[in-house]
Structures
1.
Amino acid sequence: MLEESESKEPAMNPFQKNESKETLFSPVSTEEVPPRPLSLPKKPSPKICGSNYPLGIAFIVVNEFCERFSYYGMKAVLTLYFLYFLHWSEDTSTSIYHAFSSLCYFTPILGAAIADSWLGKFKVLSLVGLSLIALGTGGIKPCVAAFGGDQFEEKHAEERTRYFSVFYLSINAGSLISTFITPMLRGDVQCFGEDCYALAFGVPGLLMVIALVVFTMGSKLYRKPPPEGNIVTQVAKCIWFAISNRFNNRSGDIPKRQHWLDWAAEKYPKQLIMDVKALTRVLFLYIPLPMFWALLDQQGSRWTLQATRMNGNLGFFVLQPDQMQVLNPLLVLIFIPLFDLVIYRLVSKCGINFSSLRKMAVGMILASLAFAVAAAVEIKINRMIPPQPGPQEIFLQTLNLADDDVKVTVLGDENNTLLEESIRSFQKMPHYAQLHLKTKRQDFHFYLKYHNLSVYTKHSMEEKNWYSLIILEDGKNISSMMSKDLVCLMCNNVSTLRFVNTLHKEVNISLGKDTFLIVGEDYGVSAYTTVQSGEYPVVHCRTEDKDFSLNMGLLDPGTVYLFVIINSTNQNPQAWKMEDIPANKLSIAWQLPQYALVTAGEVMFSVTGLEFSYSQAPSSMKSVLQAAWLLTVAVGNIIVLVVAQFSGLVQWAEFILFSCLLLVVCLIFSIMGYYYFPIRPEDLQEPADKKIPHTQGNVINLETKKTKL
């Protein structure tokens, strides 16, 4: 039978800052270290303009802005870098993107352990966190917010609360500016004739250097609490000892204990056990959370890829696909005050208890709806993009460059008519015709009727391709040539074009500073090239004996153009312009509803979840719990990686899958939250008059290892 008693000998314990008269068991271990005093300045730190805000906060906030600018700016262009520069597939690009994101969110566990046990928050930030991106993020994320909070004295709790709002504002300001500017550096600046990814990655790298300099400048102003021991190791060993001790003492003669962690009382102090109890209760609630992050983080991958298949021309501005991500931080800055000052207050006035866990559940529902909307947009896109030829299929169009009408008949192997069309001079078929092949490659016979002239010709075509039959005039005769067309479904942010030169001289065309084309004489056909969309009123051209210019007009993003250079009576050569493949006319603005829904869900889920985690975390484990929160983000990115690689679903079906999975997870989380009772701050401290049971009777015979009475 356990009895309450009080030991007169102080406990020698590495896990308590002060000696306690209530601890009966003292562990015999090589892990014991003498307590170190808090290394705080003897005099109050300087304040900002006479306020209660420490001056060091300014350096921390500016550092966070620069670091977030660097991180989000780099991530904004990462998917398109994989897709266009490295020429990876959409699934591979998505997988690598989320693998990198997962690594960035796994490392905070390591960063929290190092900060709490070895270097302290300040040194992790300056030496590790700002040196590498992936590993550095692990040093920064669990430390920087808490390090800023450490700068305030306890009597300035109100100012500390406002600091966290300013801190979160700096994060979203850095993200907002970087996700808008970095895609412009990539798309609007040319490096070696291509998008300038070097500049898009270089500017965020420069901001990281600035972050390091700014943070170091405030070194002498910071309050630097020393590390308090490896709390991660302490927690793990405490849990392991409780489990093993319970297993070794599973006899029915031994009294049961109120909580399974109470079986660690023979070796570990009660305050640590209370802290671990609070920690495990919150970590249990974290189990369903990764699915939310699996949806939220697809803004930089799947949603960006969706934007590449949409029309970014808004009339007054051409929006790059990766610039759509700017909506998230912009809406966050709008929604946070909107929810705090309006929506939550209205809900409260209606008498509804809108607890933190309920807000998080509603956030999950909003994110699920966002992916349902994304699926609807994806279905709409699929209906508007050109169909793709399948196995043993080709798409064919005919372009007539003769001076009169030409009747074209396509014959099969058995001289059966597959296609018959009459085409006017300098016109083309209104749309591509679909032809079926008997094998992967097949010869087709063409019968051309021009005036009283009949011409038979044969061309070979291969499955899964687009072709143009170009009819040429040579005096009174006609001929034809077959050209394989390019359908660039992933070039919606640029214009694709090629030239046919009907002149008898070679033409050199300058499309920009680093883009040149040479088109051969007598119906020479150039290779395809991509240019930035926009107006091209004067395009400089040159033959061996004269210079002239072509007016190509407005080039829409995502459109594939064909320009035919022809002679004009008493004038310079001109360009006849036509669209081979029209752009997808679905505006990129259709993504706005899904961004609004997912951002509203993020405000209700993420901001509330961080606040909830901080309030429920014991003071000694706040960095650990913050890192565990970030660990759920890492697991969420792994979920996306697995689905992208192994699901094999079309994109709209994948969106529906994620939407349904989050709804199921939301239901599970709601049930778990219903049985969760929040902990008050005073419950996390051991009461002064609380006595721990003395060991008598059966407890004397407990099987414990490395433990003495």
2.
Amino acid sequence: MRMAPKRQRRSKSASRRKEKGQPPGVHPLALTSATQELFECRADEDVTRESPYKLLRKYAIIQDIKTRAAVSDFSPMEQIVLDYAEEEILLVFDKDSTYGQNFYLDLTAEAKHRLTKPQDSELFEDEMRRTPETKKSTSLITEKEIEQESVKEREKLRLKFSRVQVEIGTTVTLSDYNVADSKHNYVEFPSYQDNRSFIRVMQRDCGIQAVSRLRSDATQTAWKLKKNDFTQYSPRELSQEEKEAILQSESLKNFTMSVTPRVLLALQQQEIADVFVDDFEALGSAAEAGDLPGQTSDLLVLHQGFTDKMHTKDRKISSINWHPTIPGVIAVALTTKKGEESMESAVFGSQPSFIVFYSFSFPTNSQLLLRSPGDILCFEFCPSNPNIIAGGCINGQVVLWDISAYVTCLQGSQPSGTHSSDNKETFNFDEKKVGTPTVDFCAMSDVKATHKARITDIHWLLPSVQVSVAGVPVENTSNISVQIVTCGLDGTIMFWDLRVPTMPEQPLAGTMQDQKTTGTSWSVPQPFTHLRSTWRPLFKIDFSGEHVPVKFSMDLCTCQRNTVKEFSETLPDYSQLRIPPANEMKVLEDVNTKFYTGTEDGEIIYSDWKLGKDESGQQYSPKPLFCVGAHLMMVNTVQRSPFFQDIILTTGPLHFAIWKDGVTEGPLVKSQWSGDECTVGCWSLSRPAVFFIGKANGCLEVWNLLESSIKPVHVQTHVTSSRITCLKPWAVSLKKHFLAVTNDLGVLRIFEILRTLYHPSKNEISRMEKYFDMEKNYLKFWREKEKLWSKEKKVAEEPKQKKVEPSRSAKSVCTAEEEELKRYNDFKMLEESILKEIGLW
């Protein structure tokens, strides 16, 4: 039943070939470009007019028909290909479309013979190009069938409707009439299935989708009520008589005599060699063996964990710093979480926040608290006096603390916040605890002359440098750090001086009034009485609202290496220091005043804070030397390398980048998007090629540029259970290094860095210098190539621009813009009218 229609189609196709004059065995075929590329028979490339032949495997054609079905170009020739006896079929490229298509299949017996003898190709082409003779057409159906199928005009019917003669002229009354009330007034012809004629559906287009079977199920577990409980026990001891009986027993004497030789032998071996030493670690680390990846699974080992449930509840850690002189003491700044911040936190004294000090000696309690009027987003220890701490508040004010009176608390042998009990046998639940010492701030900037938005970064200037009122770097003869640099979200960077001004300023009445209204009383220590209510910025850099700085890095700022430093026994008294007059200051000409800034929009700005002068002599803030949108969102880290002062690491949510001073073409190194948000980054203190990147998923990446600049050499998973907020390394000694990691749950964790990460490889500094120089040269070469390509592109486009008609002048462009504006206004009016009609305007 299925083959009969195919034989009919073959007969029809044969008749068509006869009508067109095609030789028997030749079948025209249209091949698309996709099919040509699949069978490697591309027109004018694989087959040409001179070499038009291509042998195709019969099996490949059949597979294409099965795979692509009706889409295949060989589907019309399916039965012809199946009936062909040979394994290879000759495909001929018809350049002139002699038979109506671009290809044809030659299934004649002489096809392969003609291919094996190329000398007869010209005769074959002449024979194929010969004009076919006309033949008389033969009808395949009878004339009677044609007569039956033809449409003829049938005889027209004539109908006449008339009214009864009696009713002619009478009045007509019309009324509604329901046809369904009477079955005799209409005839219904419902549709029904005719069993005599049935059309079988041979092909149907339908779509299917395979989905996994779903099953709904439920389970129930028995829930037990949880409750807090405690127990107290005391050890059960033997009586004195039982102890004496055991000591005098023969079994104990025999046991002692049997194990004594073995114990003595073990003690002797321990004195000769350490039996607990790790021999594999003593053989050498991977860093010494050529800076290859280490074999340790975890390069960071958890050393200590800190948390204060009283002060860290619903808060996150925004900044972290190690104490410069007291080993094992670390301070963290706590801020409210992003979703819980309110305007009240920016008001003086409404919601106090704290900087918490922890110590390795007493990890269960906080050792010291620094109270502030609002959340502290950043803080730093003074490099000249570690007892002075400067912080940036959420309301834009700069806050100072003096912890000179509480140094013994941090160095004490007994932890703060606890009280020793004489009863050591049982717990004393009625014992009163002594609270953690709290230190109030000793100075705060004037609220009317400070940042108008939150302070996001703060740094101390070097002790040997200071900045004048005009923003010029001058020499600091006192060799004491007296100036602070801050940046805020109001688009400004401010310089602050802790010394007494030459002409003391009068306190503002508004500030004193604000103090009275807030109801807060705070005592200012003697060193900072001159800053009370009169502390204003010395110099300000304003980005004029174009950029919002978040993080910055200056060459004159202290590079905190977090090592134990030597400080003089006599700490400076800031109340005795004075700002020298401008004529006594020595200008430093060789000081680098350029700095990097990361903005809220992910831009990296390289600018100079020195004020320029125009032709009239007036000073103005210079424009940035370059501005690059390196990070798509807010920059969270801008940090200089402790080994190279001209190398800067910046991190954003998507990737990190490494920059070099003076290179304006772009970053030397830029990472790819790894799928996880980068939250913070920091350099290693002992290896120039190593730095750490914190992630939002709690993982920590360790990068080594000498090994790979594409992927990290190690990824430490599950460092924290939430988003990493801060990273701070610290070197206790040459063989002891720690890394502090904080998260947005207020938890601080200290990890010990293994030898592979802190022990530098051979000539690592010189190798890194060569690496940065190579990246710099490559970047410049790439930028020159881009400029060359752009020039070539412009030269290639110039002839096209010359061909443009001269009628396109500036006037026509203006006319087109006016027409577009008119259309837009008409559209807005139409939109307004429609919204008014439907009541939405």
